[in-house]
Write a structure and sequence with these properties.
The chain has 125 residues and is mainly beta. Helix content is 0%, strand content 50%. The protein contains no helices and eleven strands. The protein is globular and about 40 Å long. The protein starts with a strand and ends with a strand.
Length: 125
């Protein structure tokens, strides 16, 4: 069963913006922290950002801090990643994942109960 679905990826020029969505179904979205990961060609999966269940606190990788913004809408059971000032280094498949209650940092891989299928973001130079 599919529990998380990412959307919003595409092709954008350097300096541009994209907004990604992560739509949840089939579980109690409000009980989960949502994390965004990305994986570029030939590179390992990278932790990008997380928004926690409690307080809605947010954390970001240094590589995206001040450019990306994570948010959530519990009524819509959807999390978002607003990406600004994009560069070719941001080119990757972006995934969302859900873990119960809190944001693990560094990631505790076994804590993620659900993963999306990924959405491609390509930034041209």
């Amino acid at each position: 069963e599919v529990f998380l679905v990412e959307s919003g990826g595409g092709l954008v020029q350097a300096g541009g913006s994209l907004s990604l969505s992560c739509a949840a179904s089939g579980f109690t979205f409000d009980d989960y922290a949502i994390t965004w990961f990305r994986q570029a060609p030939g590179k390992e999966r990278e932790w990008v950002s997380c928004i926690s269940r409690n307080d809605g606190s947010t954390t970001y990788a240094d590589s995206v801090k001040d450019r990306f913004t994570i948010s959530k809408d519990n009524a819509k059971k959807t999390a978002y990643l607003q990406m600004n000032s994009l560069s070719p280094e941001d080119t990757a498949v972006y995934y969302c994942a859900a873990e119960l209650y809190y944001c693990s940092r560094p990631p505790i891989w076994d804590d993620y109960d659900y993963w999306g299928q990924g959405t491609q973001v390509t930034v041209s130079s």
